[in-house]
Amino acid sequence: xxxxxxxxSTDPSQGIDRVARLRARLAAAGLxxxxxxxxxxxxxxxVPARAERLAWLTGFTGSAGAALxxxxxxxxxxxxxxxxxxxxxxxxxxxxxxxLIDTPPAKWLAAHAxxxxxxxxxxxxxxxxxxxxLRAALEKAGGRLVAVEENPVDAIWPxxxxxxxxKIEIHPFGFAGELAKDKIARLAGEIAxxxxxxxxxxxxxxxxxxxxxxxxxxxxTPLALGFAILPAxxxxxxxxxxAKLTIETEAYLTQLAAVxxxxxxxxxxxxxxxxxxxxxxDPALAAEKLRMIVEDNGGTLVRLADPARLPRAIKNEAELxxxxxxxxxxxxxxxxxxxxxxxxxxxxxxxxxxxTALEGFRRSTGEEAQMKLRDISFDTISGAGPNGAIVHYxxxxxxxxxxxxxxxxxxxSGGQYQDGTTDITRTVAIGEPSExxxxxxxxxxxxxxALSTLRFPAGTRGSDIDALxxxxxxxxxxxxxxxxxxxxxxxxSVHEGPQRIAKTxxxxxxxxxxxxxxxxxxxxxHYGIRLENLIVVTPAxxxxxxxxxxxxxxxxxxxxxxxxxxxTDLLTAAELRWLDAYHARVLAEIGPMVGGDVLAWLEAATAxx
Length: 609
Prior knowledge:
Elements: H1 14-29, E1 33-37, H2 53-58, E2 66-70, E3 74-78, H3 83-89, E4 96-99, H4 105-112, E5 118-121, H5 128-140, E6 144-147, H6 152-156, E7 169-170, H7 173-176, H8 180-193, E8 198-201, H9 204-211, E9 213-214, E10 227-231, E11 237-239, H10 247-254, E12 258-260, H11 265-274, E13 278-281, H12 288-296, E14 300-303, H13 309-313, H14 317-342, H15 351-363, E15 373-376, E16 381-384, E17 407-413, E18 415-417, E19 420-421, E20 424-430, H16 435-452, H17 462-475, E21 485-487, E22 496-501, E23 514-517, E24 520-523, E25 527-530, E26 533-541, E27 550-555, H18 573-590, H19 596-605
Parallel strand pairs: 1-5, 3-4, 5-6, 8-13, 11-12, 13-14
Antiparallel strand pairs: 1-2, 2-3, 7-9, 8-10, 10-11, 15-18, 16-17, 17-20, 18-19, 21-22, 23-26, 24-25, 26-27
């Protein structure tokens, strides 16, 4: 059984009836509108089937978005990655498509809600910061934000799935590089330094990292959904369903913390608040419901960024060694796939066949159990021709296209291995590409090389370097509507904060942080181009003859770029040297892992330009 499904899971026609039923519930509750985010209680990118309320209501299956249902109108808010996708998945007669960036729900409400409007929201599904923004916007317009006890979408969803209960496993020290007890002690010191008595970990990635555990409650990310209360001194409390524990994992966890059922969280937090505790919550990650519990019971809210988030992002030597090893195995799988793809006649395979083959090559990597593919790190984006222009396209049996001659094929994929998480994008010419395709692919490649070769001083943020990846495109009057790079976890989420390369990337880039480097170009209705490698920030070193120590990037991803899409006349001598050196490294590291026809193909694919 594959890790990825190609079933069509939603239908645009579902929206009109479900919105009508939701409106009836809102009218009975005296509400003028209700917000439906794509979120669960943990505010993660991937949510369990039970929390897919936005998809169930609207038909939209993207990883970010929200719907606002009013008495006589409804809107779906998505960002630039999903504009094209949303238009095909939802009933646009029922939902107006709005920009999540330019006109987010708070701004839309300020303009449209009207005086006296009561807008409902589920406080478990919105962060403290989101709720504050919504409340301020509504109060300015003369309306009010109303927290509901029962989510009205749940009330009209007859076959809502049960909560997940996948088994938890211990993440070995050899891959973690630090014992859980030492991580917990570090975090306790941070909490005490912030003047808090305890902090609530709401992000399952932080729970997984701090306690060296992994789970399987959400798709493609090895997370166990749960919470933890970490005290500045004393024994932590972990809130997890015991159905997820084996004898071994229960014995392990109970050495580190008291393990309680999730239902106990509200009572324990209320008791701490009633005792006058200073309780730290991350306003950007923690649910508004948690703030309500703390303040309604007399506790003091300490606004503190999740104390595990930054140390989790800075990979230690064991994690970096694991990532390098995972990328070599993953690179061999991708090379086998690219060879296979290059030997298929144009029009002989479709997008689903390509995804199936790629997953098969990944599954064949590694002989030891610990080296095997554990999952894909996200649904593979497999876009031929115009489907490649849909930034986060998900292929289904309904949308799958043949890979035809004269088209571009964009494949963005990754694997979850116990020693590392991978994410790679390559764009491949099927048959003979046009000169426009070659030119624009080369401009995208120039952006990738610009970041790959960058040196930068301490304190540099992602927002400071995002434009470098766009420079060549901008000079040609072109751009792309997504960030250039996201953080990546260590056998955790393929999209990890706080580091990112984007206009909104305010976190300074620190040695050990892994990020993606993925500029692109998309011609709607025709083709898409994206090239992506993962990179890791290297320690600052003195530059010969220079005065300031500079960080740089080490490239982790190992697979060739399609030479047919490279116009060497558009590359500088330095860019050509980087590309030839990169391809030489791919051949040196991946060549010994493949053989026969694949090796011969790789030698040709990596020959100097």
